[in-house]
Amino acid sequence: AGVTRRPITPRRGTVLNKVADLIDPATGWWDKPLVEEIFWESDARNILAIPVRLDTNDFVAWHFDTRGMYSVKSAYHVLEDQRERSAKKQEGGSSSGAVNQRNFEWDKIWSLQCIPKVKQFIWRLAHNSLPLKLNIKRRVPDAETLCPVCKRFDENGGHCFLQCKPMKLCWRILCLEDIRLSLTQLVSARDVVQTILKLENDRRMEVFFLLWVWWYARNKVNSGEDVIRVEEVVHKVKQLICDHASLRKGKHPKVNVQRNKWVPPVDGNLKLNFDGAFRAVNKSGGYDFLVRDHRGCAVLAGAGCLEHVHDAFAAEAEAGLAGLKSAISHGINSVQVETDSPS
User: Is CATH 3.40.50.1010 correct for 271-339?
Assistant: First the structure.
């Protein structure tokens, strides 16, 4: 259970070592009484919901992915976790307010209602991977470190976005000074982004737009173009806020959803339609199926409960299997199959 996906039940004195020991050889399915005897209720429920595939050979699986599939993305998250733990170990622990990799809600960044460029900027900001002067110096020891805008202090994230004099003026004009002051108390870029994400939606987007517009303007100065004009930055931020508000108003337009009309099979044939339901809270579900002829007349129907089911896809598969088994038991040897699931 949890991150490791290991059972939380203590091993105690059990002598069973293999998953195969928990499968009933007569039925080819989990030995339910044995599983419930050995494991705690939550573990037993999760185990019994896993489909058993006796026709599949063992294969090497990537432990850190629920499907056992290796990907660069999952490996990246594993390395980030390891780096986070290593940093905490060297520091002798972490502050109670620090946001670690596991608890950071990365999905909130990608679900923001804004253009991809802004999301990518926020992601890089949270990782402290923007090409700020002090970040560059870590790789290029003799690199210049002064802020390209004010040319008074070394440029890190805190100075660039919260302390640089023209930027502080932008915060004040937009009436965001209280937020700026609270962000200056945080210890990392990840904490800053996490705190902004917790703001009310309009304020959250206004802050993110300000940071992004400022970074764009800062880059122009860094490349030798004109000095930043505060009023232009503020105007651009307000323009983005207006565009964002318009997008939100049109976010849920009323749409007449047309359901696909049932298409009958060709004359003399039968069609099986089925549907499965899944309840994640207790890994249970249900199913129903209906067999009709080319005139739409019902030939066979059925429904039932699923006591242990892994997910919605598995529930749909169980529904189809139940329909086919019932059709065969009633002497139906040829039938078209159609699921009610949109997926």
Answer: no
